[in-house]
Sequence to fold (187 residues):
Amino acid sequence: MPKIAIILGSTRPGRNGEAVAQWVLDIAKQRSDAEFELVDIADFKLPHLDEVMPPAAGQYAQPHTFPWAEKIGSFDGYVFVTPEYNHSTSGALKNAIDFLFAEWNNKAAGFVSYGSAGGTRAVEHLRLVMAELKVATVRAQVALSLMTDFKNFSEFTPAEYHVAEVTTMLDQVVSWGNALTTVRTAA
Fold:
C-alpha cells in the first residue's frame, strides 16, 4: 500500500495551512487505498539551506538534514499544502524541498493551495521545481480562495465542492504513486 505525505508547507505563525492540511488528512483517512501522514515542515526546524554539497550528490553533512531525508524518502507520493506568497510558494517550503534530491525522485505529487487567487501561482512554480526533482505531478489540484473559503481571511470554511476536488487529486496521486513503484525499484 502506498504511503502519501500531506506536507504542510508554511511555518508562519497563525498559518492558515494547518487547518487546510488537517482537512485534507481527514478526507484522505476515509480511503483504504493508501496510508496518509501529515508532515509539518515546521517540526524539522530546517535552517536556510546549509549543506555544502549539492543535494543531488547525496552527501548530506548537517544533522538536521538526515531526519528530513529519512522522512521524505519513506513516501511514495506527496500532497503539498501551500500558501501563495508574492506569486509563489512559501520560502520555507522551497527551502525544505531544496535540501533533498534523490528522496523526491520518481514519486507523485498533488497540490492544495490557498491565497487571494487560490494559490494557483504557487502551484505553477512548484510544478517546475517538481519536474527538476523527477516528481510526476498530477493534473487535479485544489485551489482555495482566501475570499470565499476563509471567514475574515483566517477561519477555514471550505465550500463543499472542494471535497470532490480533494478526492480526485488523491485518486491521481495514489494511482501515479503506485505506477511509479516500478520506476523506483528499477533505479
Summary: The mean pLDDT is 97. DSSP finds six helices and seven strands in the chain. The CA atoms of residues 19 and 37 lie 15 Å apart.
